[in-house]
């Protein structure tokens, strides 16, 4: 189910304070990157990803592929950073960025 504009606005405000937990380099989406993506989304639900790729079109294609592989949704992409979200049905309230930054 796609995120509403209100949810995206709220997640962007949370994501502003986050540091990247996943860095994707020129090697692309290797098995290790995919495993870390899945672990990070399970733990944190909302994560920031840094893309160390020079070409803008390549970054956009990689973000789309990342969202498809991770079954997640893009909240925001600015420059070489992407903020992505995947709901966890049983989130750990200590690790989930959504629950930790609820106001």
Shape: globular
**Proportion of residues in helical segments:** 40-55%
Average pLDDT for all residues: 92
Strand proportion? 15-25%
Overall structural class, as computed from helix and strand content, comes to: alpha+beta
* Largest sheet, spatial ordering of strands: 1-2-4-3
Measure the end-to-end span: 24 Å
Give a count of the beta strands, DSSP E runs of length 2 or more: 4
Helices and strands, in order, run as HEHEHEEH
Backbone CA Rg: 13 Å
Oligomer: single chain
Count of helical regions: 4
* Main beta-sheet strand count, sense and barrel state: 4 strands, mixed
Spans with pLDDT under 50 lasting ≥5 residues? none
Descriptive account of the structure:
Helices cover 43% and strands 19% of the residues. It starts with a helix and ends with a helix. The chain has helices spanning 5-15, 31-44, 56-70, 97-100; strands at residues 22-24, 46-51, 73-78, 81-85. It is α+β, with helices and mostly antiparallel strands and 103 residues long. The radius of gyration is 13 Å and the shape is globular. The longest helix has 15 residues, at 56-70.
SSE layout:
Layout: H1 5-15, E1 22-24, H2 31-44, E2 46-51, H3 56-70, E3 73-78, E4 81-85, H4 97-100
Parallel strand pairs: 1-2
Antiparallel strand pairs: 2-4, 3-4
């Amino acid at each position: 189910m796609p995120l509403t504009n209100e949810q995206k606005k709220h997640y962007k405000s949370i994501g502003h304070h986050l540091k990247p937990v996943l860095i994707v380099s020129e090697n692309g989406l290797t098995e290790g990157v995919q495993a870390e993506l899945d672990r990070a989304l399970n733990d944190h639900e909302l994560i920031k990803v840094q893309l160390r790729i020079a070409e803008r079109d390549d970054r956009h294609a990689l973000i789309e592929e990342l969202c498809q592989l991770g079954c997640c949704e893009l909240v925001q992409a600015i420059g070489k950073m992407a903020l992505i979200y995947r709901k966890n049905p049983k989130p750990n309230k200590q690790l989930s960025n959504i629950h930790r930054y609820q106001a």
